[in-house]
């Protein structure tokens, strides 16, 4: 049985729809990420799941129980969820211990049991030694771990994490990411993880739901999303692919809004009509042959370099060997090695 079922969720604020018919199933013990750009409705979806917002339409089930739907609205504290918000809300005037104990006090858990469970939760996030500290004596990463311990202490059936790592530096983020993965393996908790960082989603998730403007465009394993994006948006957002509108004609793709055309790879030669060309930066090649383009920037990446060419109000990004003596303003030739063409008006490639 699924741990979470969202069905046709709709939510509008002041007449503006922000979640527009969203459906998703999360399995028992599964970690599913909601990934999408700022403002696409990730937090709103999580808040509906938590019971902090009520959907205008649709239903939410947790296990066997309908917790939101027509005529049903189970309050947050009776949904059995743990939640860590985008900005970690740790009470400044309470010690680490008291912060973590709070959900248990709410549930009127006996005192001696509270102490044991708080100690255990602090051990999970490796903060045993910090129980008596006050929040202002902690680093950002430690605060975030306090929030995590507090969300976990009552043994929630589902844990909701809204960008819990967004306020941390890269090294700490890696460390906490690994901690979340380890905790989850140990506790078997079902997890919904919100992020707009595709690397984070790819690294942590069993499956990723890619959101765009209030709907899910694709739900899949990280590998499948990366290798077989269902829409140009998913390809651009998850794989960092170049996405160019235009038209395929006589073995060539003509970009809209620019006097630029690319010869299509052999397997796409037969395509014709308006569409969207999707090509990963690694699948473009600089060399003797190809479309002449003016280089606007070369970024050294260490193992390779990224070359940027302005095309129709955007950049075409090419990743390849770091060539010496190449500079902005120079004309280079760019060839497509591999690409996908999505037909106009269709979300799936043909
Ligand atoms: N209480 C509210 N009243 C009015 N509009 C809101 C409210 N909450 C969110 N919105 C709007 O709904 C849209 C979706 O917001 P949401 O917070 O779900 O986005 P998000 O995907 O979490 O973005 P981010 O990555 O920036 O956190 C945004 O355009 C936002 O401005
Ligand atoms: Mg958000």
Short description:
It contains 8 helices and 22 strands. By secondary structure, it is α+β, with helices and mostly antiparallel strands. The chain folds into 2 domains: 231 residues, Rossmann fold (3-Layer(aba) Sandwich), CATH 3.40.50; 100 residues, Nucleic acid-binding proteins (OB fold (Dihydrolipoamide Acetyltransferase, E2P), Beta Barrel), CATH 2.40.50.140.
Helix content estimate: 10-25%
Tally of helical segments = 8
Largest sheet: 6 strands, mixed
- Largest sheet, order of strands side by side? 7-8-9-3-10-11
- What global shape is seen? elongated
CATH architecture classification of the largest domain: 3-Layer(aba) Sandwich
Bound molecules: adenosine-5'-triphosphate, magnesium ion
Query: How many separate domains?
Result: 2
- Beta-strand percentage? 35-45%
CATH homologous superfamily placement of the largest domain: P-loop containing nucleotide triphosphate hydrolases
Structural class: alpha+beta
Q: Quote the CATH topology of the largest domain.
A: Rossmann fold
* Whole-angstrom Rg: 24 Å
Average pLDDT confidence is 92
Low-confidence segments, ≥5 residues, pLDDT <50?
A: none
Total beta strand runs: 22
Order of secondary-structure elements:
EEEHEEEEHHHEHEHEEHHEEEEEEEEEEE
Task: Give the termini distance in whole angstroms.
Answer: 35 Å
- Which CATH class of the largest domain applies here? Alpha Beta
